[in-house]
Write a structure and sequence with these properties.
Largest sheet: 2 strands, antiparallel
Distance between the termini: 7 Å
Number of strands: 2
Number of helices: 5
Oligomer: single chain
Structural class: mainly alpha
Length: 144
């Protein structure tokens, strides 16, 4: 649970940035990645360092296709990568899955009830994805 305690403030800040500006500041993500690196190195040495780099790079490689199709933004991918650095790849994958589910539900409800319109981009819609990532991380933290 301690790993979630450290990532939640970064996700909250990222969610606020994403809602306000539709961008997540690279300094925020880099700060989180550096903190996760220091925490994992002090906890496990070289073994953790190798796992850290796997947790950092794997989400970027896997999610690049979604970025190419304009499904996720670069900031969203960097945010998920940061989460993976703190939590490990399996919890980050679960957070990602829950986030996609929440985003899909939000889209269905928005269309069904004709509520607030989703901002349109160049042929696609823009939903601040950092918000469901933050909520998913909180849910996982509570139910872990």
């Amino acid at each position: 649970m301690y790993r979630f305690v450290f990532v939640v403030p970064f996700l909250l800040a990222g969610a606020i940035m994403d809602v306000r500006n539709r961008k997540i500041d690279n300094r925020l993500v880099l700060s989180g990645i550096l903190l996760a690196f220091v925490m994992r190195i002090t906890a496990g040495g070289c073994t953790e360092m190798m796992q850290f780099f796997t947790d950092l790079i794997l989400p970027v490689l896997v999610l690049f296709l979604l970025f190419s199709a304009h499904i996720l933004g670069a900031g969203d991918i960097k945010l998920i990568s940061m989460v993976s650095c703190f939590t490990g790849i399996c919890p980050a994958a679960l957070i990602l899955w829950l986030s996609f589910l929440m985003t899909a539900l939000y889209g269905v409800v928005s269309v069904a009830f004709g509520g607030k319109k989703i901002e349109k981009g160049k042929g696609y819609t823009k939903i601040p994805f950092a918000v469901p990532v933050f909520i998913s991380c909180l849910c996982l933290m509570v139910f872990e």
